[in-house]
Amino acid sequence: MTRLTPSILGPVENQLRVGLIGAGGWAGRVHAPRLADHPGVRLVSVWARRPDAAEEIAGRHCARVAADPAELIAEVDAVAFAVPPAVQAELALQAVRAGRHVILEKPMTSTVDEAERLADAVAEAGVASILVLVRRFAHETAEWLRALHDLGGLAGGNAQWLSGALMSEEYGNSAWRQEHGALLDIGPHVIDLMDAALGPITEVVGATRGGHDLWHILFTHEGGATSTISMSLGLPMRPTVVEFSVYGDHGYRSLPGRDTPADQCYTALLDDFVAMVHSGTTSHPVDARRGLHLQRVIDAVREKL
Q1: How confident is the model at residue 11 (pLDDT cuts 50, 70, 90)?
Q2: Can you tell me the mean pLDDT for 28-41?
Q3: Closest by alpha carbon to 23, among 51, 64, 2?
C-alpha cells in the first residue's frame, strides 16, 4: 500500500476536530489515546450508549461527552467509530451526510445493502473514509505486499489466524462477536490481506464453521490464484497464531506474526487520514469502497455455509 505523505501541520487550530463514537475496550485502548496524541488531530468529543464509559474515556483525554450522536457530529470535522457493524451502519451514514470525514471499524456494516448505501453516500459527499484494517498499516505488511507485486507469478496462498479472544473477559460478553465469531471480527483483516496479496477475490469456493468457532474458507482470485484461510476466536491459543504465506513462480513468501503493535499501526492510519483530508483526497486502498468489497466477500461466505 502506497503511504500518503502528511502535509506540514499548522497551528493547533488547523488540527482536525474528531469525535469518537464508542467506548469499549478497543476504543479505550487504541482509538482514544492515538487520536488524543496525534499532532494532526484533536479529540474533542466522545459518545457511547453507556454514559459512564464515555465519561471515563473523555476524562482521560480532556474531551467532552456529547449528549447524543447528532450533537457529536455537529461539532467535529471527522468521526471515528468503535461500535458493532449494525450500529456503525446507521450512525456513519448520518455523519457522512452531514459532510464529516469518517474512520470506520471493520466490518463496515452488517449487510451488503448497508455497505452499498454507505459507500455511495461517502462518494456523493466527497469526504475521506478509511477502515481500521490496522495490519495494512504495519511496515512489514507494506513491504511484503510491495515485494509480491514486484515479483508477480503467484499461484496460491494460505492464512491462519487462531485466537482465544471469545474466551476472554474483554470479548466474552460481546454479543455480535459471539454470534458471528471470527468471520466478522478478524475475517476482514484476513480476507483483505489475501485479496491484496493475490488479487481480487472472485469466488468463494467453499466455507465451513466447526466447533471452537473454527472457519475454513477456500477462495478463487482474479487471475486464477487460489487461497485457503483458517481462523478462530474460540481456540485456547497463547500467543495468538497469525501467519500469511503465498507461493508461485518465485517460491514461498511468508508474513509471520504481528511485529508492529496495533497502536502504532493506528497512528500510521491517522497519518494517512490527516493527509487525505488536508489534500482533498477521497480515495485510499482501504476506504469505504474497499469496505464494500470485503462486505460482499463476507456475504458470499455466509451463503456457502
Answers
A1: very low
A2: 97
A3: 51
